[in-house]
Amino acid sequence: MESTRQQKVSRMLQREMGTYFQQHGGEILPGKLITVTIVRISADLGVARIYLSIFPLDMKEEPLEKIRSHAPAIRNHVGNIIRNQVRSIPEFIYYLDDSLDYIENIDNLLKDE
After folding, report:
1. What backbone phi and psi angles, to 5 degrees, belong to 62?
2. For the segment 33-80, what is each residue's pLDDT rounded down to a tens digit?
């Protein structure tokens, strides 16, 4: 169960990360749409697990590796925006959110029957 503080920081990070990818996502992954679907933060607010949905997704690991290579710049940018609201900027760990693929797979299985 997340505390109120964890929920507030998660929402704030999701909003700021979404704005960052909206403005700078074309520089990292040209021609792709990057959406921040979920942000989960640890109890000590030290680690943020950020789940990204990338459309269109050709290869699974290549876009995620490009985002991970830009991680210090992303953390610096977001950290400058939220630095007055948190004591320390959490470490960002990026994951690929494959829930849309899972939903599509279930739809395809149901249509086949």
Report:
1. -60, -50
2. 999 999 999 999 999 999 998 888 777 788 899 999 999 999 999 999
Paired tokens of 45:
């607010």
Structure tokens at 67: 């985002």
Give the chain's domain count: 1
Domain coverage including residue 73: 4-112
Q: Rounded to two decimals, what is the model's pTM?
A: 0.85
- CA gap 59, 29 in Å, rounded: 12
Q: Reduced to 3 states, what is the DSSP secondary structure of residue 31?
A: coil
Contacts 24+ apart (CB under 8 A), 42-45: 42/90, 43/3, 43/6, 45/5, 45/6, 45/9, 45/86, 45/87, 45/88, 45/90
C-alpha 56/C-alpha 33 separation (Å) is 7
What CATH code is carried by the domain that includes residue 79?
3.30.300.20
| DSSP string for residues in 69-90 | HTHHHHHHHHHHHHTTT-SSPP
Return the closest-CA partner of residue 81 out of 10, 7, 17, 4. 17
